[in-house]
Amino acid sequence: MTDASQAEGETTEMVVKPPYTLWQLVLYFLRLGTLGFGGPVALVGYMRRDLVEQRGWITESDYKEGLALAQLAPGPMAAQTAIYLGYVHYRIWGATLVGLAFVLPSFFMVVALGWAYSQFGGLTWMQAVFYGVGAAVIGIIAISAHKLTVKSVGKDKLLWGIFLTLAAVTVITESEIAWLFLAAGVLAWLVRAPPKNWGGGGLAAVAPVDLVQTSGFLTTLDWSLLTQIGLFFAKAGAFVFGSGLAIVPFLYGGVVTEHHWLNEKQFVDAVAVAMITPGPVVITVGFIGYLVAGFPGACVASLATFLPCYLFTIIPAPYFKKYGKLPAIVAFVDGVTAAAIGAITGSVIVIAKRSIVDIPTALMAIATVVILWKYKKLQEPVIVAGASLIGLVLYPLLHR
Questions:
Q1: How far apart are CA 20 and CA 89, in angstroms?
Q2: Cα–Cα distance for residue pair 58/265, rounded to 1 Å
Q3: Which pLDDT tens digit goes with each residue over 12-40?
Q4: Which residues contact 62 (CB under 8 A, 6 or more apart)?
Q5: pLDDT at residue number 269
Q6: DSSP 3-state helix, strand, coil percentages of the chain (rounded to 5)?
Q7: CA 246, CA 347: separation in Å to the nearest integer?
Q8: Residue 210 and residue 5: Cα distance in Å, rounded?
Q9: ∠ CA 38-251-309 to the nearest 5 degrees?
């Protein structure tokens, strides 16, 4: 691409006014962070449904770029996709405000739950709620995964091969292997647009981010403990790939086994909090931080976790925007997207094995799929509220 054509493209981009204001986008993500149940799989599905299909604010290619970048970089997938979509038309300012709007509602919810947990000696009712919500969530994310597959993979045989491979690997290993996403992108690139004079410097720009700066967010009080919290959760945000659920084993190893900040029951309750609250699943770090060191601990844990994912999104974003329309990049993004959706679909099965524990939960999951399939405009929070009530009634009867 010549300098003249690049300048022309940039000029065209400046002339074309987005079909929405930054304030509208921030309000959308504030609502999604407040009412968006179902975990990362469902959340990225909602973004596509609402912003690409229904409102037309984001193009399909921009959405695919955001999803691909979220899978290539470490950190929570849903939050990174949201940050990238904020960057598309409003750059750093948009990415920052969208990220805050998406994360803050669930952060305040888990802090409130952390306070209640500390004051009243545990959340025994949570098991009953999670019994119902966990089953309904399986149905919600199954529908979301199906929609993503139909729209993004379509009938392309190469993409289907990548999709099925990643789905199988995720089910077998119960984890998301980062290098397979890269391999999928390279495979699609080599098959569809063999390189002639193209370099991948844009993606490499992700690597040299210095994560030590997260310690600058540490507050006063118990400096030693907060420093430990900040450094540990910065590692969690910087080195764990995949959906928000992928961070759970890493957190268990550090929080329970290594540092002994929480016991087994407290950690399980923390994961349950993440599943029954809307927004990104990774926000469970706020609940854990609160139990360890109060409100300052919640702030430090959340900032340390989300700052790396924010940096890993906005630093390579200009390269995705600048070179994203080149055939080689399009092919690479398609490959990574197919791999991501395959991993997402596989994760539905992995999560289902933990959430569907008996016949009633299986029936609730199936009922959720049927209801959402038939009533496409039904809001997911209605399903979650109904499942919570069913859980509160059934769980005490079945587990005495």
A1: 9
A2: 42
A3: 444 468 899 999 999 999 999 998 876 67
A4: 85, 88, 324
A5: 73
A6: 80, 0, 20
A7: 9
A8: 34
A9: 65
